[in-house]
Amino acid sequence: AAFLAQQENEIAGIENDEGYGILENGEVPEALQGPEGLGAGMPCGDGGWGWGESNGPTDCYAAISQVDRLQSEPESIRKWREEQKERLEQLDANSRKQEAEWKEKAIKELEEWYARQDEKLEKTKASNRAAEEAFVNDAEEVFPGTEWERVAQLCDFNPKSSKQAKDVSRMRSVLISLKQAPLVR
């Protein structure tokens, strides 16, 4: 029986770690009593019904706030809160640092991408200009009897590169024959 009583006292001590033991006997501690005492004043606003005209703190709630001030949170919870706060601050700092690194990396990659795009654009412009000049030169050099050769240059005669559903082999053979032996007028 003594062992059980000892265990109950230890458990009660652990359970009482929240600080509710300050009002164990139902008596208000002297530190909480004001000059006129806790129960000596007028009731709150409208007699304690809760819808009084007072908007600020009243004497009725002063005792509760003082109990809250007197009640200190357990040391283990306070240490845990401090550790959590430090840990969260470190995580925030690391995430801000990582975010800054990612932004720098993104800006650098974006600049490289724009440089590659500009380079491609310049190459494409140069090749298009060269192809246009060659086309204009070929268009100006018209010799009689070379019309079918020019048509044949514009056609793709490779049978494997054609991905059309229709068979165009007859047209291809007609154009090749006209290229080799043009029509005589």
UniProtKB/TrEMBL annotation:
Which stretches are annotated as coiled coil? 81-134
Q: Which UniProt keywords apply?
A: Coated pit, Coiled coil, Cytoplasmic vesicle, Membrane
Where in or outside the cell is it found? Cytoplasmic vesicle membrane; Membrane, Coated pit
Annotated Gene Ontology MF terms?
clathrin heavy chain binding; structural molecule activity
Under PROSITE patterns, the record lists: CLATHRIN_LIGHT_CHN_2
Location (main, coarse): membrane
The record's listing under InterPro entries reads: Clathrin_L-chain (IPR000996)
Q: Name one GO biological process term.
A: intracellular protein transport
Its placement in the membrane is given as:
Peripheral membrane protein
* A GO-annotated cellular component: postsynaptic endocytic zone cytoplasmic component
Family from the record: Belongs to the clathrin light chain family.
Primary role = Clathrin is the major protein of the polyhedral coat of coated pits and vesicles.
Q: Supply the name of the protein.
A: Clathrin light chain
